[in-house]
């Protein structure tokens, strides 16, 4: 009897526990992907994620073909699709790797229960995190809400099985067996955009497991040692840019850790530590989402439910922020990088989120939604943590009064202005002194640089000092 292997956000053959378990069953394996975005509502994959998913599924199919098998594409609802497949193929078992967002958790629990009731062997596996959310708890058996304490427990517990190597052969159904039923092809899922806005994504990324390995290896050998120093610099390639690969499970955190250990030894000390700590943040975010599943829309710190957001017309400023036309160079550079490449540097994510939620007093949920649609690494756990952290309402959030000043942040982390000049070329000829604050430049300097404020580049949509005072006053009302 064949075994069904249900791929979701674990689009790899290496270190894939569900695949290992399916191979142990000994029969043919039917690898499936079920297209059912509505089952992830209200967080169906956004446009940039769909683009990534398309190419990642294509890469997975190719890897499976190299192992003598191939990817079956089905349409949801998932339960019905699986039932039909079981009926058509006589499969007796099904394996998948666990996800942690509330919608898929509820769906998976129901599917497991129904299929088991129908006599199927149905098993889920740990694959996308090093520790399950119920494995790292404080002494009182409660989830951690402070990263430092979580990190201490998490990093001490690091151990474990080595990653599973990718198999060379994945037996499929006999070749001559006719494929039952009409199946959609990958192209039929309409994951790619109908209008051509994705050139920037194509130029920046190669989705899929092979590309994830190449990126991981080259980061570890040539940049990880300087990560601690360079990670905050958006003008330099200091971080790993593995986030979309990790989100789609094209490389497992266990594999990544094993590669780091091979190169650097103890991952929680020395040069590797700052990077492994970020992998710790990723796990912390997933643990929080699991234990506090309402947080994608509700603040963890409940005082913020009554936060006095701005009442004026928010649409205009929200649109200016989305389009990278706020008149504040570092913010505009970040928002344009996001639109063009589907990714934004972490330091700049914090700065643009702080401007939106504190200076403009626009609810963090609006920013999180925009990121959701435009990021190739859009991840419910990490995005929720990032937005709640920056706006002050999350676990272990920065103290509210730490409002990022985008001018100072730009001067400190983009000191030569290379990042702003790349994404805001209309400002490229401004001297460094005024690049991060063109509104402060004398007319003669603007004229020399060919910048007409309000024509070539917008006046700032908000006064940074006044809006900072307004945000602090708003905070006083709820604290
Ligand atoms: P690196 O610095 O190389 O870090 C390695 C890996 O660690 C990343 O790939 C990521 O998986 C994880 N990681 C790093 N920083 C964080 C963090 N602060 N929280 C959780 N995990 C982290 N990250 C996402 O993956 N998806 C999101 O949707 C997302 N939204 C964010 C929204 C806001 C407002 C903020 C402030 C941060 C957000 N982040 C998100 C976290 C972080 O910005 C990205 O993970 C990081 O920029 C990805 O680049 P990298 O792979 O080069 O990271």
UniProtKB/TrEMBL annotation:
Binding residues for FAD: 227, 239-243, 275, 377-379
Protein name: Deoxyribodipyrimidine photo-lyase
Needed cofactors: (6R)-5,10-methylene-5,6,7,8-tetrahydrofolate; FAD
Region feature Disordered, mapped onto this chain: 166-185
Compositionally biased intervals (Basic and acidic residues): 176-185
Source organism: Thermochromatium tepidum ATCC 43061
Entry function: Involved in repair of UV radiation-induced DNA damage. Catalyzes the light-dependent monomerization (300-600 nm) of cyclobutyl pyrimidine dimers (in cis-syn configuration), which are formed between adjacent bases on the same DNA strand upon exposure to ultraviolet radiation.
Domain (Photolyase/cryptochrome alpha/beta): residue spans on this chain: 1-130
Listed PROSITE patterns: DNA_PHOTOLYASES_1_1, PHR_CRY_ALPHA_BETA
Catalytic activity: cyclobutadipyrimidine (in DNA) = 2 pyrimidine residues (in DNA)
